[in-house]
Every structure is written in C-alpha cells, then in structure tokens.
Design goal:
The protein has helices at about 40-50, 75-85, 160-170, 220-225; strands at about 15, 20-25, 55, 65-70, 90-95, 105-115, 120-125, 130-145, 150-155, 190-200, 205-210. The chain is of the alpha+beta class and about 230 residues long. The chain starts with 13 loop residues before the first strand and ends in a 5-residue tail after the last helix.
C-alpha cells in the first residue's frame, strides 16, 4: 500500500491532533497495523507523518474505513486504555446493508467464538464454550432504493463483532463476503465505517468527538443525506 491512495496523502486523512493524540480517517483496504502482508499499514504511515513513534489504541478491520486514534505518549495511551476498559468511550459506526432488519431499532446480544483457521468468528444466540458475549445497539436511520443505513453503537469490542452480529440477524454488510454478503466490492472494501469516537481528553478533561467523513462512493453518497 502506498502513501498516496486515490490521489490523497496521509496528511489528508488527519482528523484531530494535539500533543497527546492524533487521529486519522483510515481508508478501506489499508491495514490499521502490520499484518502478514508487506503492505504499509496506517500505523506506519502515521509515524512517518507525525515524525515520532505512536501507540495504537484500538483496531479497525482492514476492509472497513473510519476513525483511528493513536497516542503520542505512554500517559495518554494509558488514560485512553482505561476509558476503553470501563467503556466510557463511545464508538459509533455506520453500515450499509441490503436486507432491512425486522426492527427499526434494537439491542442484540450474541456469543462470539473465533475460528482462527478461517480468521473469522461465529455468532451464536446462546452461550457456547470459549465464546464471548457481544452486544450492540443499532437503528435504521435511512434507506436508498437499494440499501439501508444502520447507525451502530458497540457495548463490547469483540473481533469482527459488527460483521458477525449483522450476519446473524440476516443483514450482512455490503461487500462483506466473509460474513454472508453475496458479492464483494471491486476494491475488496466493505461498507462499514467507524464514524464517531467520543472520549474524555485526559489533560483538558473535555469531552472530545472525532467525526470521520464517509468515503466517496455511490452507495455512501446515496445514504449520506440521512447522517446528521
């Protein structure tokens, strides 16, 4: 993966920065951290841009897009990790699905078990051995002629949680063939976007909200009018 993507540079992705943190709008297809491929990750590009070592505070699946927050100091990262642990950080996602959920708004709970061989998880309605409880709340906020836009708030942070839980209720994310969508997107992206990240700044004690604009593509563009 090159530093430029679709005519942009890493600096174009910056959403927020100060002495403690820097946040980027990760493009779909870019790994957030180093993986088994030799592609440059956002973490590597972010350090080149910031001209210093950075600390990854959370993950975002490679085919998804949206907010990623990096810490610049140990103290900043420790403070953010504490907020993740006590669930005071609010992460809000947007997903485009073809099948509309039965309910306009709902909190869904599953038990997620990882299949390391396939690098995916399975979501079950009832507890399973070695499975972890996963919970999220979604609401339908708009529809185009073909797709429905879901706003999703996570209550737990499990691997591939949103993707697996939406598949489990019959609403796989557009392009996500790993989790039940019939056809992949040409660029191997999925229509899952980490839209907002709300946290308390450990120095100023102010509540901060980082918002990542949607990618520019026909499906997101058709649904953008429903985002407030």
């Amino acid at each position: 993966m090159q530093e430029q993507q679709k005519g942009q540079k890493i600096g174009d992705w910056v959403l927020y920065k100060n002495n403690q943190f820097i946040a980027f709008n990760k493009p779909a297809g870019l790994p957030s951290q180093n993986d088994q491929t030799e592609d440059k990750s956002l973490a590597q590009l972010a350090e080149i841009y910031a001209k210093q070592s950075l600390y990854v505070t959370h993950r975002l699946d490679r085919p998804a897009s949206g907010v990623m927050l990096f810490g610049k100091t140990n103290k900043a990262v420790a403070a953010i990790n504490e907020q993740f642990q006590n669930r005071s950080i609010q992460k809000t996602y947007l997903a485009a699905v073809k099948n509309k959920p039965q309910k306009e708004e709902d909190t869904i709970v599953h038990y997620i078990k990882k299949d390391a061989r396939k690098n995916k998880v399975n979501a079950y309605d009832k507890p399973q051995k070695d499975a972890k409880k996963a919970s999220l709340t979604y609401r339908v906020i708009g529809s185009s002629t073909t797709y429905h836009l879901l706003e999703i708030s996570l209550h737990t942070g499990r691997h591939h949680q949103i993707r697996a839980q939406l598949q489990a209720i019959g609403c796989p994310i557009k392009g996500d063939v790993k989790y039940g969508f019939r056809r992949g997107n040409r660029d191997r992206s999925i229509h899952l976007h980490a839209w907002k990240l709300d946290f308390r700044h450990p120095i100023s004690k102010k509540n901060e909200t980082i918002v990542a604009p949607l990618p520019d593509d026909p499906v997101w563009n058709a649904l953008a009018e429903y985002i407030q």
